[in-house]
Amino acid sequence: MKKKGFGSDYAEKAHLQKSFNSKIILELVESISAWYPNTRDNPLKILDLCCGDGGSTYEFLQKLDERNICVNELLGYDISQEQINRTDEYSCKDPRLKFKKQDVEIMNDIEKYDVIISLFGLHWMEDIKNVSKKIHNALKPNGKLMFFVPLEKPDLFQIRKDFMSLPQWKPYFKDLKLYPFIENENEYIQAFEQYFIHCTYKRGEEDKIFSEEDFMTFLSSWMQELRYISKDARLKYLKELVESIPHEVYPNVSRFWSSEDSAYKIRFKEHFFKGLGVKS
Ligand SMILES: C[S@@+](CC[C@H](N)C(=O)[O-])C[C@H]1O[C@@H](n2cnc3c(N)ncnc32)[C@H](O)[C@@H]1O
To answer: For a pLDDT cut of 70, what percent of the chain falls above it?
Structure first.
């Protein structure tokens, strides 16, 4: 089943997430600086789960350097070979950066890292409780976990499911189980509180207005169902899907006519969740 892993064009299409990552990275660096005031004698070893093309991993290392936080090694794991192929662009810039193709759900590292981060990756896990255990095992005693995830928008998920069952598209999705990512942050809390202490969480929201075209680009950066249809049909699929979004019906996604631009636009509310914890 073509289940996981993003395509090679992810970095070009994930505008919303990439711009959000820059803010998040600053937050992460602040937390690390507070946790580790003196890293000169004990430089950090850090793991980035679901690192994608490595662009954000590299940005993170640069910001750590700017704050004089010493890092020995920053390793990124991603399940997608296409993503890992793209990381060469960054690993050649700094020998402390390393990347490896690895499914996080089956990683088996033991007590190796001071800090584990994940930016917009853990929502793809099928068994978040098991991944929590894997992360716990991989951290050194007292190690820190920090993750950011989007929360599922049930209305957008419903629109996709309805659209996929239309007669013209249904035949493409015979072996696809469209899985939602986690909608309720309590699932993360329950999973991580088994193994982590001093946990803190924060929920955030970001409202965005997209042109129809930009919304199509945004969807195409992550919608798993697109991999089931031929490249030629994808544009038609995305266009029709976006046109099927109703006006002002749903709280998190709606289509509206903008007389200012003389065009339809999409209002979209992204929900984020941040978790921090210390290995117990
Ligand atoms: C939304 S992207 C985030 C990439 C990067 N962290 C960033 O913020 O730019 C999610 C990444 O998770 C990866 N992924 C999904 N399931 C995975 C798994 N089980 N193990 C490792 N990586 C996974 C995908 O291949 C994709 O690159």
So the answer is: 94
